[in-house]
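Hello forum,

I keep getting stuck at the same step: I have a sequence, I want structure tokens, and every attempt I make locally crashes halfway through. Rather than fight my setup again tonight, could one of you with a working pipeline run this one for me? It's a single chain of 120 residues.
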Amino acid sequence: MMRVLLIEDHPADVLLLQASLELIGLEWTLDDAPTFAEAARRWPGGNFGMLVLDLNLPDGHGLELLARALELASGTPVVVLSGLANREVAAQAVGLGARAYVIKGLDAAEELQQIVAQFA
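Reply #2:
Ran it on my machine without issues. Output:
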């Protein structure tokens, strides 16, 4: 079973994603960190198979934060999970190296489940 690290600072978004995943049948373990700094502390030795990143955190935002996440994950798939439905930002994120750009909401869990299945 793959371990996925979700970097998300809004507890309601974490709970929504966890509840949605339970409804569709979770095939991976979701850990969460509220800041990039916390995720960076937990990443080494965490044996994570994927990193899922919100682009708006207390200690970073936007594509600069994605660049930091790609460096941290170094070869591990990084997926952006965002509340911003912006095709230009999504294209830039994928261009920088994100494997996907997923919009937060009820469908996010299904999309993430499909992405994880590709890399499991």
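The first strand starts at residue 2 and ends at 7. If your local run keeps crashing, start a new thread with the error log.
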